[in-house]
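Protein Record: Sequence and Backbone Structure Tokens
======================================================
Tokens: labelled as protein backbone structure tokens, with as many entries as the chain has residues.
Task: work out the structure tokens from the sequence, keeping to the layout shown below.
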Amino acid sequence: MGFFDLFRQPPSLAIADCLNRSVTMAETFPASLRGKSPNGATRPLCRVYKKGSRHFIEPLDQESMPLLDGEPISETLELQLDRVYSLALKGHLLVLRLSRKDRGFGNDFKTGEWEIANKEKPEERTLIESDLMNREDLEKHFDNNAKAIAFPRGVGVHFPLSVLLPLIPDKPALSKRKAHHPRAQYGQDAVATTSKAGLHTCPICWKAFEEGDVMNIASHEELTGDPVLGPEAKLRFHAERFNDLGQALDEHGVVSMDLACPHCRGRLPTSFLSQSHIILSLVGAPSSGKSYYLATLLKLLPEELMRYFGGILQDGDPSGNVRLNEMKNRLFSALTPEDAFISKTDFEGLMYEQLPRNGKMVALPRPFVYHLRKTNDSSRRKALVFYDNAGEHFKPTISLDDSPGALHVAASSALFFLYDPTANRNFRRVLRRKRDPQLRSQATDEQDTILAEMGNRIKKLQAKESHEFVDTPLAIMAGKFDVWRSLDVDERIIAPEDRPLTLEEIKRNSQATRDILLEYCPTIVANAETVSSNVMYFPISSLGHSPREIEEGSLAGTLAPQPQKIKPMLLTAPSLWALSLITPELVALQIQEAI
């Protein structure tokens, strides 16, 4: 050992698994590398050990035939510093590199792509996504497998195709979570059409992960207690065993039906990995009526989509949406105001859950997922993801790190801001003769500040300057229209009860609503029109009547709807307008009313 070697950082061994695209570091030696022995049991098959300043790899089970750079390891071999090796074990394809510095394995390693070539012509490669690999198709196209080699993208080594083939299931997917991918067609034009194969963004914590990194949630009753989420949560794990249908099995052999994000460990919505998603973000001040709005919307929107647009909107995540559906059902099956009352505490509680992010527990939003498709064409479909945000999350004093639940607005396909005119002093002044209990509220009106801060955060997250616009459609929904419709605007607002609005009618209503807002709360208009280049104003009413003040019992003094009087007004217009812009193949508004 030289004098300067005393001051060098000792080498560590980087071990990259090419099947699940994970990278681990071994800094102490000996390090065992596990695989399957001929009898199927998992056991150490090789080990890397240190002798002086040198590192060696030796086989521990000759019958398992480990291959180093495609050649059987029959004796102990020395590993060279900074050289990249391929190691094929039974059940694993690994890449090894001994180095003093972790320079990574290349930017493309985690894309989940492979290149297949003939050993005699390695430059002529076929690019394939690992999710699309199918053993039968590979064997058929590369009929002489002995001469075929497989390159995992991003690491600069290859494996004999013959050692990769046994590790590919007969089905196109490594597990149930990948069964949605079409079978790959291999040949001259077999190039992956998606440049970021397997790259997904968690709909809860908004961190990216590869499809192979997704975790399963244990089903067996004894597997309760997760080291991160606590003793009450079901165990999260990376599946290693699957049944004949490609479904993951937990430690007790029970099928794991649910998936979890590898970062926050939150449960992913059903079919999240198999459908494209349209994110619809709802923002509004505290007590602006978001709970009643969302509950009413998800009652009426499926009916109108089916009746007028030939679309089916179904619950896409029954277990994840259960509490929101309970709230909707309670509102529309109530017999008394007490039964119909939705408290702010209940609503806030069901919209968020405490999960880890960046090393601390924070409140993260629950995504509410619904599937939209055409009745006569199931291939034309999207998943709609509804989010709600408490207004407090957009106060300028709350940082994104402390309130990451607001991150989804930057990735939204459409933004919905629910404005409550009854909280505005100018509206109250002109409506003071109305005996509406909503006008007696003493809440501070911070709605313009919340809207402005929402715009600022979206621009920051999208790396835009403050004077730039986002192109996300923004619907400013002036709620409680039943209260303020008498303000010389009723004649200008078109409100048919037997059909959706046409696009022309939406624009006319928007102009009339904008005029009213400009007169009584101009800062809302100003802030909205500095956020998006596509703003539309909507008069809506979730309940269609003034709520009643409960006089007795535990809810005394609170306001609640009168079930017999619930008659929403123009409630679905903002969503239908947004969907007609985002996915016109599913929702196409009439331009103008037919004569």
